[in-house]
Write a structure and sequence with these properties.
single chain; alpha+beta; 5-stranded antiparallel sheet; 4 helices; 5 strands; elongated
Length: 179
């Protein structure tokens, strides 16, 4: 009668290998920060950066995604940011009649333009500092939100937060204005 090869040294080695692989996988998964913890850290960082944190209204929070350097965004992410920034520029131009009827007392336009210039500077810095995808460096979380600036003007933005591998520290954060 055929008993199979479950009692051979090769079968025993396969079982041991399988058990070791399962254990390693379990350890790797248990060492990864939870999605909730990463999102909470990103929200906390956002709240700390606002003039009026009690006025914060979170519109959406992305799933944490792998980051490959604090200066790297995927081509798809970069394209989305560029489209958003174009919409913001177009809205400023529409509101000011292509700057022919610019009103320095229009605090909404001034605030939006300031936030747009700051975002442009951040993106330019990222592009110049990173020419390629690096090794896994941690996580990134995007939060779309609404708040009030230091002049009391309501605004909307998306906050990109880069978090270390362990999920303990924010390495970089920047905002892209939303019209």
């Amino acid at each position: 009668r055929y008993e199979g090869d479950h009692n051979t040294p090769t079968a025993a080695m396969k079982k041991i290998g399988f058990i070791l692989m399962a254990g390693a996988l379990l350890m790797a998964v248990s060492c990864t920060p939870s999605k909730g913890k990463l999102c909470d850290l990103a929200k906390e960082s956002l709240e700390q950066s606002l003039y009026y944190p009690k006025q914060l209204r979170i519109l959406s929070v992305s799933e944490p995604d792998s980051a490959f350097g604090i200066n790297y965004l995927s081509p798809k992410e970069m394209k989305g940011i560029m489209k958003t920034m174009k919409v913001v520029t177009d809205s400023i131009m529409a509101r000011t009649g292509n700057m022919s009827s610019f009103n320095p007392d229009d605090y909404y336009v001034i605030s939006l333009a300031e936030r747009q210039m700051k975002a442009t500077s951040e993106i330019r810095d990222m592009v110049f500092r990173s020419s390629k995808k690096e090794n896994f460096s941690g996580w990134k979380v995007k939060i779309d939100y609404e708040s009030v600036d230091h002049d009391g003007i309501k605004y909307r933005s998306e906050r990109w937060t880069f978090i270390d591998k362990d999920g303990h520290n924010v390495l970089r954060a920047f905002d892209i204005p939303l019209p």
